[in-house]
Sequence to fold (404 residues):
Amino acid sequence: MSMRQVLQWGLALVCGLVLASADARAQIAFQPRPSNGLALTPPMGWNSWNGFGCKINEATLRAQADALVSTGMREAGYIYVVVDDCWHGARDAHGDIQPDPVRFPSGIKALAHYVHARGLKFGIYSDAGAGTCQDKPGSRGHEYQDAAQYARWGVDFLKYDWCNAEDLNARSAYATMSDAIRAAGRPMVFSICEWGLHQPAKWGASVGGNLWRTTFDIWDHWSGRGNKGLWLSVTDIIDLQPGLEGAAGPGHWNDPDMLEVGNGGMTDTEYRSHFALWAMLAAPLFAGNDLAHMSKETLAILTAPEIIAIDQDRLGVQGRRVVKRGDQEIWTRPLAGGATAVLFLNRSDTETRIQQDLATLGFSADAEVKVRDAWRRRDMPHAKSQLSAQVPAHGTQVYILTPI
Ligand code: GLA
Fold:
């Protein structure tokens, strides 16, 4: 072997080793995390943020847990009580995160116990950066320590935000917290709140995420954006969901953000549309209103059994928008057992008639189908070849179609 060959071979070996070890590092960093077996249907519960923001304390949280039980929402499936941003105090001398001693004087363990004693599960919030969106301590550099603390407290759910992320790589940062939760040894639903910035629909499940936000924050409006375009209305959010359907399934869901039902910025008709669209999207359903003081209508929307049944359908297939014709939209979602949920949406300001051939809804052109009105919980006359309905302004009609 000539000296030149030796040098070439040596160079190739070094390059190969460098590449191989880079590869190995990449594989170690991005090896898909096994599923935690949780959230086989979209998780349901209540979260403090939309209704209370930073104005939270242990009494508020307990009152919401009590209301989940007394209103029947727990029986309807709302299991998780999640305290969002602003529960935090400082880290102690060991670096362990502690709750705000004024707002949560009894501590988080006692609060989680209170929630568990009511047959509910307890969720908490942190952030991948050094600070949360409200400048409370984030988990950067404390991931394992924080996950261990949550496990000691009895936490069942972690929402993990993306403020102050700076130079962090999203996928790695969420993988780190996912590993930390696993190491802590207590199963927790892992809620990735990265606002869709780095396409978490593509990697959320692979880092052990059970749900991932697909957009910036919802605000309590039917249309239009707030906060310089950062807050999205219901109609803005639904327009950003088509194309993401394939990422959803049992254990891993697209999250179009929490519910605003009952918070006062929309009409009940609009809230009904918001809720039904989230059900078609197989979205996590987190009520965000004050459950201890809600109207009968708000409760009726949040507990509509046949709309919830669509959301929780065990097949776990996210619905699709199959028709967009001006202000008229039709969304369909296949359900376990061969039925199809169909939603007619009227985005216009006047009542309108929506009519569609059954072929477009996934049936044969001359099909005859059973029709069940999912809002009114009534069987309707069979539909042959086409389906039509009056739909109020900003309203929806939701039907379950079953082939005969
Ligand atoms: C971000 C999240 C919200 C909420 C707030 C709390 O904006 O997207 O859902 O958690 O932070 O500060």
Remarks:
- The pocket of alpha-D-galactopyranose is lined by residues 49, 84-85, 132-134, 161, 193, 217 (CB under 6 Å).
- Confidence is low (pLDDT under 50) at residues 1-26.
